Amino acid sequence: MGPHPAVAAIRLAVRRVLHDILDEQSAPHAELPRPELQTAHAQTPHAAQLPYAPHSPYGDHAQETTPSPGPRTARLSGQPPLAVPTPSRGRCIAARAPQGSQAAHERPPSPLVLVACSGGADSMALASALAFEAPKLGVRAGGITVDHGLQAGSDLRADEVAQRLRELGLDPVEAVAVAVGRDGGPEAAARDARYAALDAAAERHGAAAILLGHTRDDQAETVLLGLARGSGIRSLSGMAAVSGAGGRYRRPFLHIDRQTARKACMAQSLPVWDDPHNTDPAYTRSRLRHEGLPALEKALGKGVVEALARTAQLSRDDADALDAWAGQAEAAARDDAGCLECAKLYALPPAVRRRVLRRAAIDAGAPAGSLFARHIEEVDRLITGWRGQGAINLPGKVVARRQGGRLVIRQG
Q1: Which residues sit opposite 409 in a β-bridge?
Q2: Are 9 and 260 in contact, with CB atoms under 8 Å apart?
Q3: Are strands 140-147 and 173-177 parallel, antiparallel or unpaired?
Q4: What is the pLDDT of residue 229?
Q5: Exposed site from 5, 151, 252, 311, fewest CB < 10 Å?
Q6: What's the rounded Cα separation, in Å, for the pair 193 and 323?
């Protein structure tokens, strides 16, 4: 008799992702994944991860309380704190031999894939599936758990999770502690610290990818939160299956519901930890999960979660196409000196023009996570509603002004 249907479903999802990673590793002259696959983490931190409702990279959506200030640090199990380096961007960490250095008959080294695990049902199910599938495909599998230090006994819990990962056969395994600051608010700061720790672990071990346990339910919640925020189509596109610098982050469970992951843990007798923050009504995502979505299903019938997840995929396809168009339009709108010409920007469709303006602001130093629609609308008025108005102040001390028919965006 085969495995429980839930166990079979999660293993199949992980097997597909591992095949993708192996294909990328073995592809001749492989380069970075396509730009549209790097949007959720590397480009916007994240259009899908709202400042008031961040989601955990583990996929269990642990919410944070107000953290204590301090520099980011990382702790390996049983070792003193280490500094967590700033996440690198735009570089694939998968090890590749220089051209000509590896004989044609030699096999590339086995890639290492890490799983980010908080001990919750989603990420424990993911860890178990990775531990089962990786050896069959010749992939090395490890795990990492992040201790935010925001709850009493969190260090002991992190060590327990690390031990469970080792019992699954994962190696290497780390429990990493971070000190969460206050930049951007407590939730955003906690999220930044998590990803910094995960990025540092990937760099440290030369990992090809990190698996995250976000489910279809998480995707539906993210879409609704983006809708409530009044954001653009990128927020409605939710979380990408592949994101991060060089396609580092992979989400195998975006088409699997949360109950399937929990059933898989029960079928395998895997102990799980339910973060009390996930049921705390003080947090927006928790209220949406336990009150909002059930109310929608009661009013509209079953299938709301599936429909929202499908909306995310359709929105992502549209957003990727518009982003590609904006990249081409930006190059055509610049003069020989590299300045944006207002007349050429005015001729663009609004959706494309605003993307060009956002890209230009980020390139000038504006933090993507702090650059909201209202900022871009103000800059857009310099193009479409020019009345001699003054400069527009943007996050990151970036200033946008119109000068002689040119749009100048730079740090003030």
Answers
A1: 400
A2: yes
A3: parallel
A4: 77
A5: 5
A6: 28
Give, to the nearest 10 degrees, the angle between helix 121-133 and helix 5-26: 60
pLDDT digits (tens, 9 = 90+) for 78-115: 333 333 333 333 333 333 344 444 444 555 679 999 99
- Give per-residue pLDDT as tens, 2-33: 899 999 999 999 999 999 999 998 875 445 44
Structure token pair of residue 252: 């195998």
Nearest to 209 by CA among 93, 127, 97: 93
CB-based contacts of 20, cutoff 8 Å, min separation 6: 250
For residue 72, the model assigns a pLDDT of 36
The whole-angstrom separation of Cα 248 and Cα 21 is: 10
CA 357 – CA 154 distance, rounded (Å): 43
CA trace torsion 346, 348, 350, 351 (10° rounding)? -150
CA distance 346 to 39: 26
Amino acid occupying residue 308:
L
Q: Which amino acid is at 47?
A: A
pLDDT at 59: 60
Instruction: Report CA Rg, the chain.
Output: 22
CA–CA gap between residue 156 and residue 120 (Å, rounded):
15
Residue 338: left (phi > 0), alpha (psi -120 to 50), or beta?
Answer: left
Q: What is the mean pLDDT of residues 392-408?
A: 94
Q: What span, in angstroms and rounded, lies between the C-alpha atoms of 301 and 307?
A: 11
Asked if residue 125 has pLDDT above 80, the reply is yes
Alpha-carbon distance of 259 to 122, in angstroms, equals 9
Both tokens of 249, joined, read 């982050």
Q: What is the DSSP string of 233-266?
A: HHHHT---SEESGGG-EE-TTTTS-HHHHHHHHH
Task: Give the DSSP letter of residue 41.
Answer: T
Residue 91 has a CB neighbour count (10 Å cut-off) of: 11
- pLDDT-derived band at 63 (thresholds 50, 70, 90) equals very low
